[in-house]
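INTERNAL AUDIT FORM
Audit reference: QA-55
Scope: verify that the stored structure record matches its stored sequence.
Auditor: D.O.
Record contents follow.
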Amino acid sequence: MKEVLVVEDESIIRQGLKVLLEDVIGKYQVVEAKSGEEGLTLVHQRLPHLIITDIRMGAMDGLAFIAKVRQVSLDVPIIILSGHSDFEYARTSLRYGITDYLLKPVNRVELSEVLSKIFKEEEEENSEVSRNFKKIITFIDDHLGQEITLKQIAEFMYLHPQYVGQLFKTELNQTFTDYLTIQRLNKAKKLLKDTHLKVYEVAQLSGYKSPKHFMTLFKQEVGMTPKEYRKLS
């Protein structure tokens, strides 16, 4: 189910959008924010599939909020809501990477059409995302014996670190850290089984600078020490 973040300081409009998205149009789960500041906090916690934001709010207006969001993700679709008096302002905001804009009161048919267009284009772009993710996986495989961070991967792929982290959740339903740990332990198991390397050497080749930390983690995750695993292999 697609998660939509609705950022709107007027509770009636916010609740109306929630009903439209969850009950009338369906297929969407709404997360609500009463301000740009609250919306930004939620974006940092979990990147939604779509953001719908009012253009006129309190301390942080729609454009300021969007500028902050774009520092986190350049790709998340954003729809702006505006009144008739803000129409030209909303149209000008397209230069900030807005996907579309809707006039208040929101027409359910128009909203449905915009959503269909957004997610149809997203589906067409899935193959590109998959190609990018395959490159990320290859990068990790090639550098398992070295320090690997989201920042390094992001720089290699010319992407934002938080977007890379979100890809792991989208593609594998895992965090980057969990995936990296599993791959390193899998490499360690293979080395323990197929070679006569010392445990500290296996640790180094699997990306662990501290043999003690490696042995503690290995026993915690595998249920036995590296030496015990080697004997059973």
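Auditor finding: record pair retrieved intact. The chain has twelve helices and five strands.
Action required: none
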